[in-house]
Specification:
Tetrahydropterin Synthase, Chain A; single chain; three-stranded antiparallel sheet; about 60% helix; about 400 residues; rod-shaped
Length: about 400
């Protein structure tokens, strides 16, 4: 009866020990798993990590699998790629006391992760704050017009100011881009008014220049027209004088060629006119009666039988025929008829081309036209002088 309690009391510690052992084993297994997990550090290809053990900096972990002391280690990640930092909009006063607002973008890259870890608390925040103050300082040293026009110069100045402090942090500023520079509303209105006034001024200048150009072109055209008209009148007078001279020579040569026959014919015309009058008494010159008697020899069936000198006509000599162009009358008439024909359609086409400004003909300079006309007149005068010298010889 008493054996059972003793036996139960004997086996109680064994049962308790059998329950604790599995728990301890599970705990140790969990601790081992956690230790292995913390001892293995996988670093990405674009990263580097700073390792501290008990708060002491040890080294930089390179990309790949790294083993570190578990439970007492801590890592800090640094992205080694180019990173973009937005610089918030800043207000500044330019050197000519004009308020402006501007924002920018800064492109940075971690070159030394150790310095970025040990030399600065938060390198991104530090670079952003430094860029803000530098942007305000650069805008404050420039005129308003320069802040609006010299964007590249602003970028270069900001980058230069950021280079020295960021080098100590292991950071390189690759580029700075100012996105917008906006003056105040009052300044914008004043600039718009100034631009409008400038455009109006330029429009007035262009209009005045156009009117001046038009007046010059019109005066030049009138000048050329007057010159051409004067030259035409001059040529017309020359041709008219030449025609009168040729006509005088022709009449003289004609009278010389006809001789007495022409006098008799005019006398016969006069007798015919006298015969139509009412008077029955006629007075005839003796020279006319003698010439009529001589002329009777040429009449068929005339009763004048006395011998005398026959009336003969004179022909033009070779020089006169060449001067008057008697041998080329038909050719001259053909040329005149050909020049008289006008191509109406061609003239209308040329007029339309001139009206639209597409006339390919080039208007010569007035001095050039005068020089050409004078040259032609001198050539003609020299030719006439040679002809007269030939006649004289």
């Amino acid at each position: 009866m008493h054996a059972s309690p003793q036996i139960g009391g004997m086996f109680a510690p064994l049962q308790l020990g059998g329950t604790v052992f599995p728990l301890v084993a599970l705990l140790l297994l969990a601790i081992a798993i956690v230790a292995v997990y913390q001892a293995v550090e996988i670093v990405n290809a674009y990263e580097k990590r700073a390792l501290t053990v008990f708060g002491e900096y040890r080294k930089l972990l390179e990309p790949g699998i790294n083993f570190i002391p578990p439970f007492v280690s801590r890592t800090y990640t640094f992205d080694m790629r180019t990173q973009t930092l937005d610089v918030p909009r800043q207000e500044a006063i330019t050197r000519d006391n004009s308020p402006v607002t501007a924002d920018a973008v800064v492109y940075i890259k971690v070159m030394d992760a150790r310095k970025a870890f040990l030399e600065v608390d938060d390198y991104k925040k530090a670079v952003s704050n430094l860029a803000q103050t530098t942007l305000r300082a650069v805008l404050g040293d420039m005129e308003l017009d320069d802040t609006l026009n010299k964007r590249q110069e602003i970028n270069a100045k900001i980058r230069k100011e950021l280079d020295e402090p960021t080098d100590e942090w292991g950071i390189r500023v690759e580029s700075v881009e100012v996105r917008e520079v906006n003056p105040s509303k009052d300044v914008q209105q004043a600039m718009e008014q100034q631009t409008s006034a400038e455009r109006k001024r330029r429009a007035m200048i262009l209009e005045a220049q156009g009117e001046r150009r038009s007046a010059v072109e019109k005066a030049e055209g009138d000048k050329q027209s007057n010159i051409i008209r004067a030259q035409g009148e001059k040529q017309s007078q020359i041709l008219e004088a030449q025609g009168d001279a040729i006509s005088t020579v022709l009449r003289a040569k004609s009278a010389e060629s006809m001789g007495e026959r022409a006098i008799i014919e005019r006398g016969m015309e006069t007798l015919e006119a006298i015969g139509q009058g009412e008077s029955t008494t006629f007075v005839l010159p003796q020279e006319l009666t003698s010439l009529v008697g001589r002329y009777g020899k040429h009449l068929t069936g005339g009763d004048v039988t006395s011998d005398g000198q026959l009336l003969e006509g004179l022909d033009f000599d070779a020089e006169t025929r060449e001067m008057l162009g008697l041998d080329d009358i038909e050719e001259i008439l053909g040329q005149i008829d050909q020049e008289a024909e006008m191509d109406v359609e061609s003239m209308e086409a040329e007029a339309e081309a001139i009206k639209t400004g597409a006339d390919p003909a080039k208007i010569k300079d007035p001095d050039e036209v005068i020089a050409e006309m004078d040259g032609e007149l001198e050539t003609e005068a020299a030719g006439d002088g040679d002809d007269l010298e030939t006649e004289t010889n």
